[in-house]
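Exercise 7.
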Amino acid sequence: MSVSWLPPKNSNTGCGFRCRQICHEEYIIGTMATPATRDRFESRPGSLYVGFFLNGMAIVLTGALLPRLAQLNHMDDRQAGLLLATQSFGNFLGSFFVSSPPRRSLITGTGLTFAGLLLASAVITGGSPLWAIYSCFLLFGFGLGEMATAINLIIGTRNASVRASHLSAINFLWSLGAISSPILIAALITHLSLGKFLVLFSLPFLILLPTLLRRVGSPVPPDQSQTVACALPRKSHSSSTVFHFALLFFLYGGTEMSLSGWLASYAQRFASATATSNPLAPAAFWAGITAGRAAGALFLHRIAERRSVTVSIGLCMLSLAALLLSNSTAEVLVFSGAAGLCLGPFFPATVSWAIGEGLPTRILGPLFAICGLGATTLPFLVGIVSKSTSSLRTALLLPILYSAVILGMLAVPRPVPGPDATMQ
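Solution. The predicted structure, written as tokens, is:
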């Protein structure tokens, strides 16, 4: 499967169009700096930062609200897990329907996110059947996926000298939003009905829409300094290397979202957490993720990526084991944060490792999608096991199992591919 974000064939893209002819596989997103995409977002990216912060808040909303949603709609754990999977699947789909230029998808995604939240408020308040609730969260997830992918593409068109700093800043804001959402829920959920809360949560997306529409103005003339050289060397890679990284991304996505989605429910059931305090467990987890990635930026350049990934997942396993032995709210919060802190460096280190292995864009794109697929399916599996065993604690052994599989993969040396084991 080939995923590449290429401009229309008749667009005036200069180097970008030559890349399609000369080095199709190694097309770099930076070549999308064209008059069609380099609009007012280039000089005034503040709305993109706000949008990505809101996206981070919204992506963890379902997990933080899951205990309340399950109680109001009489969901068992299998049905609650399906709700998490539905939103993640919508997010997965939304990332594949980003148009060129991506600014259109940013506006569409923001609008769909607002619409999904508003419809979810209506169907929950009206006591609609579960399929209607699932449909709203599918739309909500689709909008979030389209919105996040579009922002990453727009930021990716910036000059190479500032691109990395802007991407780092915007991903920090996303993590900050993911931390803030459960805290906001904990502060407001006892004072508002769930329907009213969802309406309130949707309003920032509605307010953001006119700002985004105003930013889509006359294009900025293209700057030759913003294009990148396209004559990149092709590198061979074995099918076993591709499968190796596909499984790493799949299991990582499943581990992260299983914890994010189920920690609030776990805190409520096993640590006697109240409706006010149980959303703080996923907040602690995302705070750990944010701190772990910030710390990783300081030491990843000093340690080999494979070793960083191994240490990260090994310490995460220990934190998860301690979490499942916790019986108080304070212990759950501490070990949730510890698990996030240990897991934080895993994703950037794995991406860096994959690039170092010479995997081209046409392979990296589907690998990121596979990460989303793991985030869609494996949290649902936690719900199924919890339903069948009547124990969420037992079901949360699955993220430890996922981590153990990753650790086992990393412990086995991978052979260097020979000339006959390459995939072009």
